[in-house]
Amino acid sequence: MFSRQLRHGSGHKGNGIHNRIHWGVIKYVATYRRSMRPRVLAKIHEHAVHADVVLLSSRRSVRRWLAQAARD
């Protein structure tokens, strides 16, 4: 989040995109696991009971999963 801010600057770029970090964004990111994750998992369970769900918790686990998927 902050690295994007440093790379692209802040404010309105004239193309309809506002690149700002404000308290609401920081709070959303900081509390996502506690507040939103249970809701998302409940919706998956409700609407996609038979779906294969893969929970990836780090970049390393993503790389491993992608490498395994490429081999399959």
Can you put this structure into words, describing what you see?
There is one protein chain. With 72 residues, this protein is mostly helical. It has one domain (2-71). The chain is built from three helices and two strands, in the order αββαα. The chain has helices at residues 2-8, 23-47, 59-71; strands at residues 11-12, 18-19. The longest helix is centred in the middle third of the chain and has 25 residues, at 23-47.
- Count up the domains: 1
The H/E string reads HEEHH
Radius of gyration: 17 Å
What is the topology, as strand order, of the major beta sheet?
A: 1-2
Low-confidence stretches: none
Helical fraction equals: 55-70%
Which range does the strand content fall in? 5-15%
Count the E strands.
2
Short descriptors:
single chain; mainly alpha; 6% strand; extended; two-stranded antiparallel ribbon; 72 residues
Question: What can be said about this structure in brief?
Answer:
By secondary structure, this protein is mainly alpha-helical. It has three helices and two strands, in the order αββαα. It has one domain (2-71).
What's the topology here?
Layout: H1 2-8, E1 11-12, E2 18-19, H2 23-47, H3 59-71
Antiparallel strand pairs: 1-2
